[in-house]
What does this fold into?
Amino acid sequence: MASEAGYAVIRMGDVVREEAARRGIQPTDEEIGGMAHSERETHGSEIWAVRTLERVSADQIVIDGVRSLDEIDYFQKTFGEALAIVAVHASPGTRLTRITERGRKDDILSEEEFHRRDRRELKWGLGEVIALADYVIVNEGGLKEFHKEARRVLRQVFG
Amino acid sequence: MASEAGYAVIRMGDVVREEAARRGIQPTDEEIGGMAHSERETHGSEIWAVRTLERVSADQIVIDGVRSLDEIDYFQKTFGEALAIVAVHASPGTRLTRITERGRKDDILSEEEFHRRDRRELKWGLGEVIALADYVIVNEGGLKEFHKEARRVLRQVFG
It folds into this structure.
């Protein structure tokens, strides 16, 4: 939606995956996650925010994949009051149904594992980012409804 | 809204405040917060959930004021699949405006202090509860809009 509306988009996950590729790391969730983790331990919890901003030149930009308030604090140093946090929320039940229906082979399998992964990913502080979001899009309905909401929020953020 | 709809309501904050009163603790945010904190340290992070459930006898109940996934895990032991997490979200900007307009004397004063308190309160894990909520009510509009949403969610939760 952001690209279509003409905004630059950068995905923090892509920054991580490209770094993994550069190092010849296996492109599995576990290997990439391990590398992302050890980089945070070595260089500080905002390291992926730092590497993301190194690639940013546009004036109006959407950054996807923030995981912690440390990253937010780092972005705020650059963007100040202009920074807006947008959270997209769907309930665990809805997300589990969607993942199961999508059936991608790297998607997790059991319900138990799904909940374990959720808890693990929250460890970085994603919940705190959601709690302090400036905009929350509740994504419980269909794609059409989500697109409408996303367009509305993008208009509000970029004015 | 829940009381009006006929559901039992228990507020975890009331459980904390009554315990504070019983002990003759000054009813300030800081003193009560300090007591709540030291009780968690002494008896475990789910202690206020334990004391809340001791007072519950109704079948269909709304528990207000959950602060962490440890409390959720404790409630889940009792309610199992029937437990639903409902988060009410408003952006920091909206909350700050509302607090300023309300102007209660125990409300915090400066914007800086507001943001510090937000971060402090998230330390218990409230953000993780919001992230894993089954329902999120976005509370950015007026009271009327909020009431309508609350009624809708209550109907969905209790069927």
